[in-house]
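Worked Example 4.2. Consider the chain below.
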Amino acid sequence: METDNSKSFEELIENLEEIVASLDKGGLSLDEASVMYEKGMKIASEASKILESTELKIKKIKDEYKISEVSENLDE
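Applying the procedure from the previous section yields the following structure tokens:
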């Protein structure tokens, strides 16, 4: 269940949900739980990076739209 840059946000969240379910279920040794927790943290970090990147893209789009909207209003 290694994370890689080709996984989508949705795939990462699905993997994270599986890990959480396994940890919630219990029955794991301390070592197994520790490994699962570390994998979960890596996945959460990757998902967070995707969210941050998407937020920046949305902000850029909004900023571009505001600029073009202002210039269009000035032309009228």
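The mean pLDDT is 87. The helical segments are 9-25, 30-75. Compare this with Example 4.1 before moving on.
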